[in-house]
Design a protein that fits this description.
The chain is α/β, with parallel strands linked by helices and about 240 residues long. The protein has a single domain, classed as von Willebrand factor, type A domain (Rossmann fold, 3-Layer(aba) Sandwich). The protein contains seven helices and seven strands, in the order E-H-E-E-E-H-H-E-H-H-E-H-E-H. Strands 1, 2, 3, 4, 5, 6 and 7 form a seven-stranded mixed beta sheet that branches. Strand 1, helix 1 and strand 2 form a beta-alpha-beta unit. Helix 1 runs parallel beside helix 7. The chain starts with 14 loop residues before the first strand and ends with a helix. The relative contact order is 0.18.
Length: about 240
């Protein structure tokens, strides 16, 4: 096989995968969080192995975490997030952040999951290389407060430039001809580990390129579900 001037083999493709993990870290997630954390820490190695088995190599893999609680309960730690971490170079930085996540707080039953989803959607996604996959994964056992609720927006730490409501957030996610979309339609995927409750049910039904695995409080992440996510990413590249 010949190579071009960049040293890349002619006919080969460069794959870029960005994954934003939105993780509920409220007290009700205590039985689940360790399993979610372990899944996050092994995700990149398992994805690389599946890709290698298909004769493909990921040229660039980046992960970020957006851990969320409830702005209406305690705003100062309602969101904890990382930038995208490049693997394997920044694996230690990523793992240190994930291991330090603790399940505390939360207040009432709904949490600030939609704000976390909005932050994930407006991530600085990779726009280069030959093929791209941009994946948002949400882990939660609770419904979410509506966007723009006074109890949340009154917190001094509430993120700037949030969507006004769920309809605007759906515009951010967008469809093929959406003018407001912040996501590349051919690259994006949304995976929900969330209860069969609003707003997650509606998102699963109305948003394109979305998978929903219903979760229950105190139930862990099933192995086959994580494998299905990894295979879905690998098969779509």
């Amino acid at each position: 096989m010949t190579q071009n001037s960049s040293g890349r083999a002619q006919g080969s493709l460069e794959y870029a995968v960005d994954i934003a993990l939105c993780i509920d870290v409220t007290a009700s997630m205590t039985p689940v969080l360790e399993m979610v954390k372990q899944s996050a820490l092994t995700f990149h190695r398992r994805l690389a192995a599946v890709m290698a088995g298909k004769g493909k190599a990921i040229s660039q893999l980046r992960l970020r975490v957006i851990a969320f609680r409830d702005f209406g309960d305690k705003g100062d730690d309602a969101i904890q997030e990382t930038d995208f971490c490049r693997f394997p170079e920044e694996a230690e930085k990523f793992e240190r952040f994930v291991r330090e996540l603790q399940p505390i707080g939360g207040g009432d039953i709904p949490e600030s999951g939609l704000e976390a989803l909005a932050l994930a959607i407006r991530s600085p996604w990779e726009k280069g290389l030959d093929r791209r996959r941009h994946v948002v994964v949400v882990f939660t056992d609770a419904p979410a407060h509506p966007l723009g609720s006074p109890a949340a927006t009154s917190a001094s730490t509430y993120p700037r430039n949030m969507p006004r409501d769920l309809d605007e957030l759906m515009e951010w996610w967008g469809y093929a001809r959406s003018q407001e979309s912040l996501m590349e339609n051919s690259a994006k995927r949304l995976v929900l580990f969330a209860p069969e409750a609003e707003p997650w049910n509606g998102i699963a039904e109305e948003w394109n390129l979305t998978m929903h695995f219903p979760s229950k409080a105190g139930k862990g992440l099933e192995e086959f579900e994580l494998d299905e996510i990894i295979n879905t990413i690998a098969n779509s590249l």
